[in-house]
Amino acid sequence: MNQVDELLNAYAPWAKDDRTWPLTPLERFMWSDDRPQTPLVFEVALCFDGSIDPAIMREAFRFALGRHPLLRSTIRSRGKAAEWVASASGWPEMTVHARGAHDEPGLAAIDLTKSTGLRGWLLETATGWDIKLLFHHACCDGQGARMFIQDMVLAYALMCGSSRETSPFFTIDISHLDRRGLYPQATGRATTLAWKIQQIVEFFFHPPKPTAIAVEDDAGSAKASESGLKVGMCSYTFSPSEVAQLQDPKRREGASLNDVAVALLFSVISQWQQRHGMSRRSWTRITVPCDLRGREDERMPAANRYTYVFLNRRLRDCSNWRMVLEGVQKELQEKLQTRFGVNFLAKLEILARRPRLMRWVLGGRSCFATAVLTNLSDPSRRLRKRLPVDADGFFWLAGARCHDLQVRTPPLRPKTHWGVGIFEYAGRMTVTFRYDTDTITAADAEQVLADYVEGWRQWLAETAR
Questions:
Q1: How far is Cα 50 from Cα 65, in angstroms, rounded to an integer?
Q2: What is the DSSP-derived secondary structure letter of residue 224?
Q3: Cβ distance 453 to 234 under 8 Å?
Q4: CATH assignment of 3-179?
Q5: Burial of 29: CB neighbours in 10 Å, binned 0-12, 13-18, 19+
Q6: Of 76, 144, 172, 336, which shows the fewest CB atoms inside 10 Å?
Q7: Residue 199: its H or E element
Q8: Superfamily of domain 188-378+409-463
C-alpha cells in the first residue's frame, strides 16, 4: 500500500466503495443546460515559480479526487431518473506536459455521461509549473473547487514532508452530500405571496435584451477562441494598495463590494446598449450567483450549494450612478438576507420532475440574463492558514511560490453574452471579462473592461472626498 492509499484510508475511507446519488434539481438544470459551444465549465490555474514534483502532484490529485466523489462521477440516466455514479476505480489522472509540449484542451466541453467532471493538467513553464483544473459546474461550484484545491495542495505538502500540521486536512464527511439539495428556507418578505408574484412578473414580463452585437458578419469578425468555442477573455488586476482602499468600510458607506460591482456593471451595460441603438426603455438583467452554505456545510465535499438572484433595470434608470448603487444595494442585500434565491430552486424542483419541460424551457429563444457576475473572493484563503506566506502575500508549497492564481469564470449562456468574474489573491483583486466573440471584438471587449475598471477608480475617488 503506497502513501496515497494510506491517506485515503485515513481521510477518505468512502473512496473504496462505489457510490451513487440522485441528481438534485440544480444539478439536473445545469446538466440539461450544457451546450458544446457554451459549456458549463470553469477553469482554475495555480502558477508556481520553482520546482514541483510531477509524480507527487499526480498522487496528490488522486487523493483529492478520492475525497470529493462528485468530481470523479459520471451521470447515468434512465428515463426521468438520473444519478451520479462514483466508481472506486478508474479515476481520471492528472496529465503532465513538459515545457513546449502543451496539449491541454482549454475550456472544452465535458460530456458527463461519458467522462467525469474534473480534468487536471500539470504544465512545465520557463520558471516552474502551472496546475490547471477544469471543472464542470454540475459537479460543483466555486467553493467546491476551492475545497478540492486545498486538499490537493495540502496532500502534496504532506507527501513532500513540508507539512507540520497534526491534522493536515480540513474535516469533511461524505454523509453531508445526502442533503446537498436541501436549503435553508427563505425568510421575511421573501416568503410573502405578493413579493413572489412581483418577482415573477419582473422575470417573465420584463424580458431583458442581450448585449447589442457590435461585430459585422464578415471576414473581419472576431474569431472563435479557446479550442473552437465562441468565448474570449480579458482581465485586469488591481494592486494591493487599491484593494485596501476598496475594502475600507468607511469608503464603502455600507455598500458591499458585490453591490458596487453589480451597480457598475449595470452602468457599463447601459452605456454599451445605448451607444449601439438600444432603446432607453429596454430592460437589462444581471444574474448574481449566491452561496447558500452555512456552518453546517463546512464538512460537505465539493458540491453545488448556491442559487441565483436576478436584478432588473431599465436602461434609462442606469444613468444616475448614485441612484443605481443605492437601488442595487437595497435590493441585493435584501434578497441575500431573506434568501429569496431559494424560491428559484423551488421552481427548478418542479421542472426537474418533468425533464422534457426543462429541456423545452432551456431550448427557447428567450434571453434569461444580459450578463452574469460572479464574486469568488479569495479561493486560497484557507490554504494561507496552513502554508507559508511571504511578505508579498504569496503562499509557498514545498519550496515553490504560487506567484499567480487565475480563474476563468463565469460560463456564458445562449444570449448571455457577457460574464464578469471577480476574485482575490495575495491582496490583489482580479476582474475577468468573458464574452461571446460573435457579438463583440477583442478590442471592444478590452475597452468595456477598461470602462468597468475606470468606474471602480471613479467610485474610489468620490468616496475619498
A1: 25
A2: P
A3: no
A4: 3.30.559.10
A5: buried
A6: 76
A7: helix 193-205
A8: Nonribosomal peptide synthetase, condensation domain (3.30.559.30)
Is the Cα dihedral 123, 94, 144, 10 positive or negative?
negative
Enclosing H/E stretch for 421: strand 418-425
Annotated domain spans of the chain: 3-179, 188-378+409-463
Alpha-carbon distance of 243 to 234, in angstroms, equals: 19
Q: Which of 411, 304, 355, 376 is nearest to 70 (CA)?
A: 304
Task: Determine contact, residues 306/292, Cβ cutoff 8 Å.
Answer: yes
Neighbours of 354 (CB within 10 A): 12
Provide the pLDDT for residue 222: 43
Q: How far is CA 153 from the centre of its chain?
A: 20
* Residues ≥6 apart with Cβ < 8 Å to 92: 65, 72, 115, 116, 118, 119, 120
- List, in sequence order, every residue forming a beta bridge with 165; answer none if it has no partner: none
- Identify the sign of the CA torsion 140, 145, 148, 152: positive
CB-CB contact of 444 with 452 (8 Å): no
Q: What are the percentages of helix, strand and coil residues in the chain, rounded to 5?
A: 40, 25, 40
E strands along 295-355, which residues? 306-314
pLDDT digits (tens, 9 = 90+) for 363-398: 777 789 999 999 988 999 889 888 999 999 999 999
Q: Rounded to the nearest 10 degrees, how much is the dihedral formed by the CA atoms of 285, 287, 292, 293? A: -150
Task: Examine the pLDDT at 254 and tell me if it is beyond 70.
Answer: yes
What does the pLDDT average to over 195-216?
Answer: 84
Q: Residues 323, 187, 181, 118: is their CA dihedral positive or negative?
A: positive
Q: Do 188-378+409-463 and 3-179 have the same topology in CATH? A: yes
Q: One-letter amino acid identity for 304?
A: N
pLDDT higher than 90, residue 319? no
